[in-house]
């Protein structure tokens, strides 16, 4: 069974940092490119960062230089280190494969506000 469980979100002031984690089942994690997506209220869900099984990364222009995606293949866990957070980063963050599968987790809310 495919399982994705995101955690680590919260309320942070502009300029602050958060580290998100995603625990994934082996069936979805192993050998797949994984990504972090986000969805703000009233907007579509967008991919913001991706990482291949071998560690190659890619980022949306909006987060490049501020966010870092990583993975621990032994633990089936995906991470997103977010620095220099801005109010426009406020969204629910999800992990999934790239391209995505229909089995989304519950997401984790990130709110950037003073």
Question: What order do the helices and strands come in, and which of them pair?
Answer:
Blueprint: E1 4-7, E2 10-12, E3 18-24, H1 26-29, E4 34-39, E5 46-51, E6 57-59, E7 67-72, E8 77-82, E9 91-97, E10 108-112
Parallel strand pairs: 2-10
Antiparallel strand pairs: 1-3, 3-8, 4-5, 4-9, 5-6, 7-8, 9-10
Architecture overview:
By secondary structure, the protein is mainly β. The chain has one helix at residues 26-29, and strands at 4-7, 10-12, 18-24, 34-39, 46-51, 57-59, 67-72, 77-82, 91-97, 108-112. Strand 5 (46-51) and strand 6 form a beta hairpin. The mean pLDDT is 96. The longest helix has 4 residues, at 26-29. A 6-stranded mixed sheet has the order 2-10-9-4-5-6, with no helix packed on it. Strands 1-3-8-7 form a 4-stranded antiparallel sheet.
Compact overview of the structure:
It contains one helix and ten strands. The chain is mainly β and 114 residues long.
β-strand percent reads over 45%
Please count the helical segments: 1
Could you describe the largest sheet, including whether it forms a barrel?
6 strands, mixed
* DSSP helix fraction: under 10%
Please describe the structure with a list of short key phrases separated by commas or semicolons:
single chain; 114 residues; mainly beta; six-stranded mixed sheet; four-stranded antiparallel sheet; 1 helix; 10 strands; 4% helix; 46% strand; globular
